[in-house]
């Protein structure tokens, strides 16, 4: 269980490290756009995925907080929350085999739309 918890916290660490590495320059330049990828799991807890959902709730909360904190700096914050995406991990899951999945290009299109 602890190993799974540690692996899942990478969802939060990656976001924090990524934002930290760019936000200072964006604020100094008074422009930029941070796009975080959350999940529909950031809105509802799913059985078997409690820790994953908790990390996605965190991504969503951090995004909302950043949006408020950076509101008058010229830096925009967008949170994209897709459903299940076809990946190596999701294609191996026996729990998701009958569920329609988005393609990675669908997420790329959503991000492109958000930043345009």
Please provide a written account of the structure.
With 116 residues, this protein is mainly α. Helices cover 55% and strands 10% of the residues. It contains 5 helices and 2 strands; from the N terminus they run ααβαβαα. It has helices at 2-8, 10-29, 50-69, 88-92, 104-115; strands at 32-37, 75-80. The longest helix is centred in the first third of the chain and has 20 residues, at 10-29.
Largest sheet properties: 2 strands, parallel
- From the N-terminal CA to the C-terminal CA, the straight-line distance is 41 Å
The radius of gyration computed from the alpha-carbon positions, rounded to a whole number of angstroms, is 15 Å
- What is the molecular shape? globular
Q: In order across it, which strands form the biggest sheet?
A: 1-2
Number of strands: 2
Query: Which blocks of ≥5 consecutive residues have pLDDT under 50?
Result: none
Element string (H = helix, E = strand): HHEHEHH
Average pLDDT, rounded to a whole number, is 83
Percent helix, as a range, is 55-70%
Descriptive key words:
116 residues, mainly alpha, two-stranded parallel ribbon, 2 strands, globular
Q: What would a concise description of this structure say?
A:
This protein has 116 residues and is mainly alpha-helical. Helices cover 55% and strands 10% of the residues.
Helix-strand layout with pairing:
Layout (H helix, E strand, L loop, with lengths): L1 H7 L1 H20 L2 E6 L12 H20 L5 E6 L7 H5 L11 H12 L1
